[in-house]
Amino acid sequence: MEHSEHLLLYYLAGVALLGVSAQWLAWRLRLPSILLLLSFGVVLGIFLPPDAVFQRLSPHQEIDSDLFLFPIVSLSVAIIMLEGGLTLRLSELKQSGGVVLRLCTLGAIVSWVLTAIAAWWVLGFDARLATLIGAILVVTGPTVIAPLLRHIQPKRRIGSIVKWEGIVIDPVGAVLAVLVFEAISSESGASAPIIAWALTKTILVGGSAGLALGVLIEWAFSRYWIPDFLQGAFVLSAALASFAWSNHLQNESGLVTVTVLGIYLANQKTVSLKHVAEFKEHLVVLLIACLFIVLGSRVELAQVWQLGWPGAVFVAAMILIVRPASVALSTIGCDLNWREKVFLSFLAPRGIVAAAVASIFAIKAAKHFTSIDMVEQSEEMAAVAFLVIFGTVLVYGLFSGVVARLLGLADPNPQGVLIAGAGTAARTIAKALHDNGVLVLVVDTNFRHVAAARMEGMRAECASILSEHVAEELELGGIGRLMALTPNDTVNVLAVRVFTHHFGRQNVYQLPPAEGGAGAREAVGRQLQGRRLFDKNMSYEKLSQLLGPGGACLIKRTKLTEEFTLSDYRVQYNDAPVLMFVISEGGTVRIITADNETPPQAGDTILAIVPQQTPVHYEEDEEEGAAEKEASSGKEKPPAENPNNNQPDQDKPAGEKPAR
């Protein structure tokens, strides 16, 4: 018995370790994580299936592992749906609400009907079970959509549509499956009024429970009845309790409850729940990893293999016929362009909800029907669901990103830079990047600075970098990094904190704070800061002295070669240059930081601050308007004298085109 307990302990720890390892490996290889998660799970199931682990707990008594796994899977899916709801903003529906509504209603019906026809015609299922399979496979789900969106990184609008559909369609599909099963399992056949009442009851119970709990949580938090350290756990436990209670009142209404709860909490304006959302996000990453490992390990490959070529044809029909037809009919008359419609037609992976619902109804159907053929087909439902899950995840995971890039809707490795601050020095840096083909978005609260940036041809927004407008509503497609260049060190630190969630800690940068003689009481904690730009002493004051009005430096571009190396470059300027950016021959931009240890190589182009003999691009603030007019009229200032005329074409101002 002790050995069995240890085996279960090792199994659970191994599942978590395999799940996290698969996600890390997928991140390193730039592959969709769910592909590796399913593959790791299948391999684990070959050597140690979960049924064998549970059986060893009681060798003399047969144990049904489903009795343990299904409640755990159901609660895990509830948490995932809650976290998905917390990411949904109603403001996103201003442009895409009609499309989402059609995809989750008309699109769901089309998908249901066509999938049922395919299951009946291709797989040879009884019409009743084919109808049930069609209802089950309507769902996509955040368990697969979220990792794929993180991998693809599509533009904001199309990403919002896919995200909303993936979360809302889950309870729709689960409820549809319940209604279909009640209809086919009734001896006399469920009448339309009975089905309509069941649907209405599910919506009323799930929606009202979610709204009521959301209002209660908002009210309790606004009165500080729940301490900060308990808020995440409180929301989680309350959501799970409401999920179970809703399912008790009406079957499968729990998913509606947690989804509505998440959407309400995400859009209320009374209290901030970002810390709760972050807590759920980290938990969901682990849950998705463990669920897919367990799902893969439960699959009996022999059953899947027995489906043969009809199974492959069925999956192909789901990808090439069902989804495109569903999207085409749902988006008639919508303002989506053809590229967005094609992308939507090529992204509908099935996830853990489809697997869980299929397993549950496979057991129910096998117990209900008495004929041998119906029992055998019922037992095959789980294998069909896994085949669809694995097939859609494989195809969409490998090719949806390629399709998005070909359609111009995504950039998996965005090189663009979001710059906080549009002062003279910040604009000079932004202009240097812009002139070298790097996408730049400048954000500042000073309209005069924003107008100056726009006159120089850059995209600029008059807004606070800390506002929800910038983080949630601005189109950030193609942008993957933040540079905080404002004169306020506190704003820079806060901007880093806000956009760490969007870009990751490795892609948020700020100027080193001007600590001077500040002691531990005044200095900003290093753990709160982003990566320090350029040089450890490059504060805003120093940067302004170099590139601000009246500064004695400019930003120049230089391409390194085998003959003209970085050492030669430093000698040319007496070690004065401050390296800022390195652009590879492939167009990848590397931002130089204070802890940078990788020197530029031959073939790289560097942007650096170097001394000049003429004033920098902008005059004093009072004369900026005149300078901008002169620049917009096409007049150029004479270039600085080059004291090293023996290096022609090697060294050019950042705004010039490279010599041919």
TrEMBL record:
Its main location: membrane. Residues 612-660 are annotated as: Disordered. Residues 626-639, 649-660 have a biased composition (Basic and acidic residues). This is K(+)/H(+) antiporter NhaP2. The lineage of its organism: Bacteria, Pseudomonadati, Planctomycetota, Planctomycetia, Pirellulales. It is found in: Cell membrane. The gene is nhaP2. One of its GO terms (molecular function) is antiporter activity. Keywords: Antiport, Cell membrane, Ion transport, Membrane, Transmembrane, Transmembrane helix, Transport. It comes from the Bacteria. Signal peptide: none annotated. Residues 417-507 form the RCK N-terminal domain. GO terms for biological process: potassium ion transport; proton transmembrane transport. Pfam families: Na_H_Exchanger, TrkA_N.
